[in-house]
Amino acid sequence: MRSFARFVLLLPRNAGVLVLRGYRAAISPLYGDVCRYYPSCSAYGLGSVQQRGLVVGSVLTAWRIVRCNPWTPGGIDEVRSARHDRDRITTFGWVVPRGMFPKAEARAAAAREAHRLEHVAIDRAAGGSPAPEASDLIADARFIAEPALATSAPIPSRKD
């Protein structure tokens, strides 16, 4: 019952997400890549509405659009994560209460971990060495077993 009430409270936020997704699909491609910031203002707006809600996210997006002008140097300006962990974002972008779809959350967590491990493999193949974690050590065993990486030079450490 509690998650259903939270779902109902998230409906305005999801309506805003739907409007922003429509804008990003129909209107944003017409402008091309003109934003001075990364991510683009529409992506920032979508993320801020998802993370902070419709009202606060809209205010943050409006402030970002005001700052995105020809006299600004631009740069990287990512959306800060919410301080709470009550909600989850689906693959479409809907915001749903945590625990409402446990099987989908498990699949999404597995996909995020596989994606992260793929990036670790790319970094290591390029000669970089990210900070080791427990899951990286597990990934090391998988990479050493692959013949293409088993014959390559050892991975340099960041202690040099």
Features:
8 helices; 160 residues; mainly alpha
What is the succession of H and E elements?
HHHEHHEEEHHH
State which percent range the strand residues make up: 5-15%
- Please state the average pLDDT score: 76
Q: What count of helical segments does DSSP give? A: 8
Morphology: globular
Biggest beta sheet summary: 2 strands, parallel
The largest sheet has its strands arranged as: 1-2
Protein structure class: mainly alpha
| Helix percent band | 55-70%
Distance between the termini: 56 Å
List segments where confidence is low: pLDDT < 50 over at least 5 consecutive residues.
139-160
Number of strands: 4
- Specify Rg, calculated over alpha carbons: 20 Å
Short description:
This protein has 160 residues and is mostly helical.
Task: Summarize the structure in words.
With 160 residues, the protein is mainly α. The chain is 59% helix and 6% strand. The chain contains 8 helices and 4 strands. A two-stranded parallel ribbon has the order 1-2. A hairpin with a 5-residue loop joins strand 3 and strand 4. Helix 2 packs antiparallel against helix 4. The longest helix has 24 residues. The protein is globular. It starts with a helix and ends in a 10-residue tail after the last helix.
